[in-house]
Amino acid sequence: MACSSGDRDNFVLSGATPRTGKACMTIDERTDHRLPPVVDLMPPGARLDGERLVIGGQLASELADSFGTPALIIDEVALRARARRYADGLAARWPNSQVVWASKSLPCTAIYRIMGEEALGIDVAGGGELVMALAAGADPSRFVLHGNAKTDSELAMALEAGVGTVVIDNLDDVERLERLSSREQGVLIRVIPDVATATHDAIATGHQNSKFGLLIPEARALIERLRGSDRLRLDGLHVHIGSQILDVAPFARAVEAIAALGEFEVYDLGGGLGARYTYDDHPPSIESYLDTLTEAARRFLPSSARLLIEPGRSMIAETGVTLYRVVSVKRGATRTFVAVDGGMGDNLEVSLYGQRFEATMADRVGGGESYTVVGRHCESGDQLIESVALRDPAVGDVLAVAVTGAYCLTMANNYNGALRPPIVLVAAEGARLALRRETYEDLLGRDAAPPPPS
Q1: Which pLDDT score is estimated for 197?
Q2: Do 118 and 83 form a contact (C-beta atoms < 8 A)?
């Protein structure tokens, strides 16, 4: 349901943000209407129907009623617009280029299909991602296969499928590929540029002790070896310095670092641009990021080279919202806990990276008192959000957590036998299930048959 401009104009809500204590109101840059700040963290086009959250043209609380909770809601229109913004922006700056979606951010067959329809390449890491991308009908010649520990079976699958590019992470990759390849295979060498980034250690990959890639001296030696291979065609170099990076300068330094290895036909500059998870985050725009990469390429790389980039988090994080149902509200010694029917089973980023998220009651958007949102799992670390402003949460209410499109479902698990949530695609014309909720039958389906009675 759409809200009228009058509904937006007349929406006035007092309250406090969890950090500043200032009035919980702002001018939304997308619409020029007064909206609570949390709406600006929702997918572009999110709005209010009275005080109720609308995502992709659908009421959040009605989505929860229809598909259950927890559920990951992806705004398909926002996702396609993001893909085109990346593809068109890169092509305008460097025509000989290709955007390759880092599918580890949300591996789901329906999402692979969308990216393929938008003519993006696909970054796959491992057999499972490869199988889903192929099932979606995406073009394998545009696939880039990654992984620091590729097995024989995974490489054989990739070669049989006709994967266009394999990224060599180590010398063992070379041995396996030369043994398994029956035709010429295009490869890139992943290079460690020794570039530090201001991100969490778990998602920093450009430093000297990264488990991914080869240091520049080792990469230089491998370049010479591959130039003599009769099975592997060295197309160029790959570099990736990490994830959730909020400063463009390290990306330029990485380009300069790999340029010292010589001139090649292809340079894959990886991904890593951060998303805006909280009110305090101010990531560079896609345009600023692309400007930085292509300006560095003009300075340091051959003008004839083909550029690849691999956005993941910055492509899909802000298109997603997770809906939960409140199960309990309990006052502790110094905090009041709102417990929901999900948690670290569907969002490990808080426990793993210390990532901050923001949330709101779906039918009473913005403002309120401070609460701590916790999950249902038997773990004290199962805390989703510390100190978030919510208005009168009660058992049965729907809670909406913003910016959950990337890596939350990727790392979903069965802690306490929890069922992994569905993915729901929304657009103005309606909502459709992209990935069903796991069932208890699924949990039992992998059990081996018991031995026959003696």
Answers
A1: 74
A2: yes
Q: What is the CATH number of domain 77-316?
A: 3.20.20.10
Q: Which residues carry out catalysis? A: 378
Please, are residues 267 and 308 in contact by the beta-carbon 8 Å criterion?
yes
How is the chain split into domains, by residue range? 5-75+317-435, 77-316
Buried b (16+ CB within 10 A) or exposed e, 45-55: bbbbbebbbbb
Strands 165-168 and 320-331, sheet pairing: unpaired
Q: What is the DSSP letter of 364?
A: B
**pLDDT tens by residue, 350-406:** 998 899 999 999 999 999 999 999 999 999 999 999 999 999 999 999 999 999 999
CA atoms in the 13 A half-sphere facing the CB of 279: 20
* Strand spans (E) along 24-65: 26-27, 34-35, 47-49, 52-55, 58-59
Angle, in degrees to the nearest 10, between helices 171-180 and 216-226? 20
Q: What strands, in cross-sheet order, belong to the sheet with 58-59? A: 47-49, 52-55, 58-59
User: In this structure, which amino acid lies at residue 57?
Assistant: G
For residue 31, name the pLDDT band (cuts at 50, 70, 90).
Answer: very low
Q: Does domain 5-75+317-435 have CATH number 1.20.5.320?
A: no
pTM of the predicted model as reported, rounded to 2 decimal places: 0.90
